[in-house]
């Protein structure tokens, strides 16, 4: 059989990690290894994993304190032909790996596989799958562009990636603290021949208050988000250029500004300069419907300033 390595970064997930690992051990494809890299938990996460008795499970404690470093550590330990990066609070359907391997066996070498994902809080039975346009896109560049234009996304655990593609794309960027998954998968997609979306399986994304995606708007987080925008620009323009590509890249920068304005003025100015150098005439609209309407009337930057003034008045 084909061995699949499931790599799980672990930090303070004592309430969820057992269920996550159970979903791995329950896979109908039995030739797996689960590599858990624990990095500085202050709860009983490590002890819980250590108590699980299965030869396919290994747990390591590392000194570096971010998820990207934990994933890279796990990757260096991996011996599988295929890789899954699964978060410590997410849950895989039991047929995920089996169906994805079967789908990839029908494609030329160089493809990666994905699947549906759905949100839940307590029980996976409450999850509702809401299809997104980007899911079924096969072409790597089109996948990235459509995703950046707001047509959907994919959580890390959905992907099944042949190891040679990761070797070609490069490992996770350990400098990043926000949106590092998107940056990594952009490189992986562009290093692949395409995405095959696998029906009839799912990864369940747990919504918890401590999720990294809900972290505050610190300077470190904002700097990471802007560096991701710059990486997207570098990676995609190396492969393809054109109005559609540039518009999607501008959309990333404008979304960054929408998210972090009015904080971190120096980073906002960098984003604005990057937008100008891309020289896009028909700029995309972002934000809520009211903000989009306002942008049409007074422009994006004026709309940001007006939103800031309104928020100050409401405090």
Give a short overview.
The chain has helices at residues 17-25, 45-50, 67-77, 96-105, 140-151, 163-169, 180-191, 219-239, 243-260, 265-278, 289-298, 300-314, and strands spanning 4-10, 32-38, 57-61, 82-85, 91-92, 111-120, 161-162, 194-206. It has 315 residues and is an alpha/beta fold. Helix 5 (140-151) packs across helix 9 (243-260) and helix 11 packs across helix 12.
What would your notes on this structure say?
The chain is an alpha/beta fold. The protein has 2 domains: 4-213, Spore Coat Polysaccharide Biosynthesis Protein SpsA, Chain A; 216-314, no CATH class. 46% of the residues lie in helices and 16% in strands. It contains 12 helices and 8 strands. The strands form 2 sheets. Strands 3-2-1-4-7 form a 5-stranded mixed sheet. Strands 5-8-6 form a 3-stranded mixed sheet. Helix 5 (140-151) packs antiparallel against helix 7 and helix 5 crosses helix 9.
CATH C-level class of the largest domain: Alpha Beta
Tally the beta strands: 8
CATH structural fold name of the largest domain = Spore Coat Polysaccharide Biosynthesis Protein SpsA, Chain A
Report the principal-axis shape: globular
- Estimate the mean pLDDT confidence: 95
Topology as a string of helices (H) and strands (E) = EHEHEHEEHEHEHHEHHHHH
Q: Describe the biggest sheet?
A: 5 strands, mixed
Structural class: alpha/beta
Unreliable stretches, pLDDT < 50, 5 or more residues? none
Tally of domains: 2
CATH superfamily annotation of the largest domain: Spore Coat Polysaccharide Biosynthesis Protein SpsA, Chain A
Query: Span between N and C termini?
Result: 61 Å
**CATH architecture classification of the largest domain:** Alpha-Beta Complex
Q: How large is the share of residues in beta strands?
A: 15-25%
| Helical proportion, percent range | 40-55%
**Which value, in Å, is the CA radius of gyration?**
20 Å
Strand order of the largest sheet: 3-2-1-4-7
Q: Helix count? A: 12
């Amino acid at each position: 059989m084909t061995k699949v390595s499931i790599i799980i970064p672990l930090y303070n997930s004592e309430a969820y990690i057992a269920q996550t690992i159970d979903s791995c051990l329950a896979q109908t494809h039995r030739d797996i290894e689960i590599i858990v890299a624990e990095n500085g938990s202050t709860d009983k996460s490590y002890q819980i994993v250590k108590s699980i008795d299965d030869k396919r499970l290994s747990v390591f404690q590392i000194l570096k304190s971010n998820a990207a470093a934990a994933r890279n550590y796990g990757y260096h330990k991996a011996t599988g032909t295929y890789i899954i990066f699964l978060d410590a609070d997410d849950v895989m359907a039991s047929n995920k790996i089996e169906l994805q391997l079967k789908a990839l066996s029908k494609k030329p070498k160089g493809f990666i596989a994905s699947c549906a994902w759905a949100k839940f809080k307590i029980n996976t039975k409450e999850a509702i799958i809401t299809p997104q346009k980007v899911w079924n896109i096969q072409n790597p560049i089109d996948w990235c562009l459509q995703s950046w234009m707001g047509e959907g996304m994919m959580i890390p655990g959905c992907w099944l990636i042949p190891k040679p593609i990761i070797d070609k794309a490069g490992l996770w960027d350990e400098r990043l603290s926000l949106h590092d998954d998107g940056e990594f998968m952009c490189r992986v997609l562009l290093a692949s021949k395409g995405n095959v979306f696998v029906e009839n399986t799912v990864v369940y994304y747990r919504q918890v208050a401590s999720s990294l995606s809900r972290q505050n708007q610190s300077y470190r987080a904002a700097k990471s988000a802007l560096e991701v925008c710059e990486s997207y620009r570098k990676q995609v323009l190396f492969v393809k250029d054109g109005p559609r590509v540039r518009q999607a890249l501008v959309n990333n920068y404008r979304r960054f500004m929408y998210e972090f304005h009015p904080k971190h003025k120096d980073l906002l100015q960098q984003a604005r300069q990057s937008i100008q150098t891309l020289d896009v005439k028909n700029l995309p609209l972002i934000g809520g419907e009211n903000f989009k309407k306002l942008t049409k009337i007074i422009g994006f930057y004026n709309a940001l300033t007006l939103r800031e003034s309104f928020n100050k008045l409401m405090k």
